[in-house]
Amino acid sequence: MPSSVYKLAGILVLGALAPLLDSTIVAIAIHTLGTDLHAGTSTVQWVSTAYLLALAMVVPVSGWAARRFGARRVWLGALTLFLAGSLLCALAPTVGTLIAFRVVQGVGGGLMLPVLQTLIIRAAGREGLGRVMAVVSLPALIGPILGPVLGGLIVGHLSWRWIFYVNLPLCLLALALAWRGVPEDRGTASARLDLTGLALASPGLAALVYGLAGAGEQGFGHARVLLPLAAGALLVAAFVRHALRRERPLIDVRLLRVRSFAVASVLTFTGGLTLFGGMFLLPLYYQQARHESVVAAGLLLVPQGVGALLARSTGPLSDRVGARPVVVGGMLLTALGTLPFCTATHDDVLLGLALVVRGLGMSATNLALLVGAFQDLAPEHIADASGTTRVLQQLGGSFGTAVLAAVLAHGDGATAFPRAFLWSTAFTVVAALVGLCLPIRVASAEARP
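^ thats the sequence. predicted structure below, dont judge the formating
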């Protein structure tokens, strides 16, 4: 693999670190934000929800934007937008303005991550994708671990405004490096925006995310949950019908006819469920069931980060043996690492070892899925496929968080967390069975759909 590819990967990693840290840091600070801004729980929760909705609505546009303006320009623009949103959030005088500025952040973050995948896959090619993805995935691995610790330290010792100020130096450095280090690519002036697809897909995805976010608090049977879920499902179904008839749709759902991409897409949904569901469940377990402080809970989750870092060595393994054995093995390790939390044990040594295993399995799975998803796609389909995988991961995370939150809300104090972890384990085992449908070997460099 040329050194220029790893240099590009390092630059993109630095830029992606800010939005991936931001979500976990803000989640830790929600209670403090409500107190300092004199807002109730139902209001301050929109600080997180508005960001997720903006992110869900803009991800479908990322593929078209990369084709129309060039991936480099979109990356620089998205990073600038996230920087501006962070500064505005830090200066927000009221909870209403903070929520509005979180939308600006969400638009920037929603564009950045799919374009990152597009840039790096184009540079690396399929043969060495696993090795370079081990570098690119670093922010996703350390974000959920460093975020709660950093957020706890900021909330405990500084003003809540520093949870947004901390993004500024990262974004400025990433912009300076990207301006010089990300190769120029020309957009295509003839690439037209699918306005009908945009009118269907973006509000449809936003409605699904909104409904799933509400399901965590109110359950799936409440009208305020059922109505947006039903509306979102109808809009997304209408978009799929539209996309199958249009030559160049907003998101090319015809790529799902490629077996490796279709199976990897299903697993990306379940992977989002496992990743984001765990990010939601584990800090709550340590703070509510174990009565640990915010900082202590973040430190107790560090072993999961150790396991995630160990998983970087599995990137080249996916190149050699294919995605299937790594995905299935990683899913089973994730389930194994979750099982001790189903038993209500308080053995910190056992739980720490379990978190190492869980982090190893989960991260190995996510690395291999990136190889499996793109191995049979032609270069011109990478931008569309990147947007699709990000949408599915976001929906999977929202669904997983909603289900686990509903399990916690309807369980008693003694059994609620073990039952929620049992649900998480069951989802992971089902995903491992789906992983058996992936192709056994990596396709050759000449493979085309």
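The chain has 19 helices and no strands.
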